[in-house]
Design goal:
Helix content: 25-40%
Number of helices: 9
Order of helices and strands: HEHEEHHEHEHEHEHEH
Distance between the termini: 46 Å
Largest sheet: 6 strands, parallel
């Protein structure tokens, strides 16, 4: 950190991906790089598809690595297992080291039959369109993100997002209660419960 701190302070300019990342630098460096910090967000590189937002389908999607250390997909499974309504499905697009663990957890939670494990897809949005028609929301429950580009891509396709308010990125993309929901990073039980409530709102069409 001492070397990184020196580099930040001596650099002519510092480029970050979002405002919350710039704010984090302010906290770490006492506002000494704010005047030379530039926000350049990642570009959107996909062509949005029509009809991917499909209210009333009771179908959700997760797109990303199956890496429990960062992504905490188990929070999604636990919240869905506590839903009053059992008429829902979850499409998980991605692969990773924790796939078997998550599949076993889904079975242990008695929701294995509600989940489609789609594996890695080169074009997840096209895959959703061709195989399911659309979804009601994208879910992201990470402890941290670099930016959360999957949220931007989902919204470009008209899909609302539910995400943890993790550092950094989601709060710069999601306007809570307008184009999605932000879940506070607190205790595991509180995160799961807040996520469950947000899912219920989506299912009830509120």
């Amino acid at each position: 950190w001492l070397l990184n701190r020196f580099v930040f302070l001596k650099a002519d300019k510092v480029v970050v991906l979002c405002k919350s990342m710039a704010d984090e630098l302010d906290e770490l460096l006492g506002n000494r790089v704010r005047d030379k910090t530039i926000i350049i967000q990642n570009p959107l590189t996909i062509a949005p598809l029509d009809g991917l937002y499909a209210p009333g389908t009771h179908r959700f999607v997760y797109v990303g690595r199956l890496d429990e250390h960062q992504k905490k997909i188990s929070r999604i499974l636990k919240a869905l297992s506590k839903m009053t309504c059992r008429d829902w499905s979850l499409v998980i697009i991605g692969d990773g080291p924790d796939k078997e663990y998550l599949q076993k957890l889904a079975i242990d939670l008695n929701i294995g039959g509600n989940i489609e494990w789609a594996g890695w897809q080169s074009d997840p949005w096209k895959y959703i369109k061709e195989n399911f028609g659309g979804v009601e929301a994208l879910l992201l429950t990470s402890d941290y993100e670099g930016y959360g580009m999957v949220l931007v891509e989902a919204m470009a396709n008209g899909i609302p997002c539910i995400s943890t308010d993790c550092p950094t990125g989601p709060r710069d993309i999601i306007r809570n209660g307008e184009n999605g929901f932000l879940i506070s990073l607190s205790s595991e039980d509180a995160i799961v419960e807040e996520l469950r409530k947000a899912l219920e709102v989506i299912l009830n069409g509120q």
